[in-house]
Amino acid sequence: MNISHGPAPPIYEHSPIQRQRSIRLLTLFAADDFEATLGAKLRIHRLDSAPEYIALSYVWGKAEATIPIYIDGHMLKIRKNLSVALKRWRRRQGTFRIWVDAICINQEDNDEKSSQVQLMRFIYQSARMVLIYLEEADGWEEANKVMQHLCEAKKDGILPQYAGGDTHTDFRMIKIPENSWFQRAWTLQECYVSNNCQILHGNTLFGLDILCDTLSDWIYVSVTAEMRDFLHQRGLSSRISLVNFKRTRLRQDQGPLALPLFALLILSNGSQVTKACDRIYALIGISSEAAHPSLQPKYGPNEDDIFIRVAEYAIEEGKGPLLLHWAPNLAKDLPKGSASWIPRWNADETRSAFYTPSHGIDEGIFSASGHSDPAFRSQEIQGSHILSVRGLIFDSIEQVGTCRTDIKEQVGSVEEIVSLITECLVEAHKLLLSRDGYRHFPNESRASVLSRLATCDIDGNDWNLRSPVHNQTAMAMVLDHSIKKLLNGPHSEAYVANIKDIMVDWNPPGFGCDVYLFVAVAIFRLRSQRFITSQGYIGQAPQSVEIGRSKGDKVVLIAGCSVPFILRPQADGRYSVLGDCYLHGIMDGEAWDEGQAVAMEIV
C-alpha cells in the first residue's frame, strides 16, 4: 500500500468493544514491495467464534511509535520493531490475520486494556500459531545459516562437535540468545499455552522447542571452552535453559498446568517488563488464581495498587511470611510512599540472605521462630499500609563488615571471584576475633562457624545436616566444599590465620560446574554484609545495615517465619523491614520464646 502526498490522513480511533470475550483481529494486506507502507483492516470478533488467526509475541522496545500503519484508511503509529515483524511475515504469507497487542488493544483506554489482558491466555491459546519475532542484530543472516544447519543436525540426533571453530560465527550466534525476548515476563504466558510456537528471525522460521534445544546443545558441544565460559558468564546459557524449563515444568500431556501465582512469581523472577504492574498481570492469567476477583488486571495511574492487592491476598492465604522474604531493597529508589513489607516482585529490588528468597521458606530448612503460627494482619491508616505481626527483638547489630554493592554482574574470571570470596572469609574471621571467646558456639570451631556462614547453612554434603533445596544451590555447594576443604583441615585455625596465602580449589572432583551459576552465587555472597550483634552472634545480611543498641537495626524473630529478619526502628515506634538474614546459632528456634513475643507494626 503506497500512500501518495496529499492531505494528512485522519488518525485511527478504536471502536469500543461492546461484548464480553470479544477481541479485535488485524488483517494485514499483501504487498509486492517489502518496504511498502503497511495497510490493514481491523475487525471485532467473538473470541469463541473468531476466524483463524495467529498471535504475535515480541518485544515492544524503547523506541517511540513513529512508523505509520493505515487501518481502514486511517493512520496509527507503531514502533519500528513491530513494523519490521509485520513486514517480515507479510513477505512470507501475503495477506494474513493476526492479533497483536499494540494494535488490537486500545492502549489509551485503561478499562479496555484491563479487560483484554484478562483474555490474553485464551487469545494465545486459541491462535493457530504463536509467532515469536526476534529483532535482528548485525550478522543475523550468517547466524541463521549456521542455526539452520545445527537444527537439522539436532533433528537427526547428531550435533557436530567443535572442530577448530569459527569464533566470528560463534559471536554472531550469540545474538540469538542475547535477544531481550528471552527475558520478557509476558513470554511465559504467550509461549506456554500454545502447542505451536514458531520463531521468526530475519527471513528464517524456527520451531521454539528445537531452537532452544539446539542452542543448549550448541553451547555445551559445539563451541570452545573459552566461548562456553563467556556464554555462561553473560547468562545466555541460562536464558535458553530457563525457557525450556518453564515450558516443560508448566506443560503436561493433557495441556498447560496452572501453578499458584506465588510459584510463578518465583519462577519468573528477574524477567523484564515495561510497566512494574505487568510482573503480576503477565502471570495471573496462567495461575490457579486466574479467576480471583481481587487479582484482576486494573490499569491506572497507581501501579502499586496490584502489589497491595497481592500482599493482602497473601495474608488471607496464610503466606504472609513470603512477603517479608521478598521485601523491597530499601537501598533502591522505590516509589514514594511504598511500604517496606509489600514486594514488587523484582529481582533488582529484592534481596535475601539465601540467594533466592524461596530458600528456607517453603522447604522447611529453618525454624527460627520454632513452630509458631503466623499472625499477620494488614490495615490502611492515613494512607499508610501497616502490617501487624507478633515478634521478638532478639538483638541489635553492633559491628559490620564490608557490603560490596559495587560488585557488578560481570566481574571477570572465576579465580577472581574466589579471591574476593576469600577476602570476605578473612573479614568474617576478623569479626569473630573481635569478640572474647565463643560462648554461644561452645562446640564449634571458628572454621566451622565460618564455613556454615559462607552458605547460610544451606548445603548438600556430609559436613552439614542441611540438605539442598533446589538445583540453584549447586554452586553454593561447590563454593562451600572449597571453603570447608580450606577451613576444616588438620590445621584449620592456622589456615584461617593465613587464608590469603592459600589457593582455593573451586572445582572439586565430583561436582559439575556451571560457571555462570557459580559467579551468580558468588556475587550474591559478596554483596551481602557480615555483622556481629551486641550479644556476639555472627550473621549475614543482604544489604547495608546500621549499628546501634537503641536506634540501630534489630535482628527480629517473627511468629510463623522460618528465618530472622532485620528491622529498622522508625520515629513513631514502628519498623521498616530490610529483609531476612542468617544469624548463626538461632536458626533452629534456640532463641524463640512465645511468651516474650509482642505486637509490632511494620510500615
From TrEMBL:
Transmembrane ranges? none
Indicate the segments forming the Heterokaryon incompatibility domain, all copies: 53-190
Report the protein name in the record: Heterokaryon incompatibility domain-containing protein
Query: Which Pfam families does the protein's record reference?
Result: HET (PF06985), Het-6_barrel (PF26639)
- InterPro entries, alphabetically? HET, HetReg/Transcr_Mod
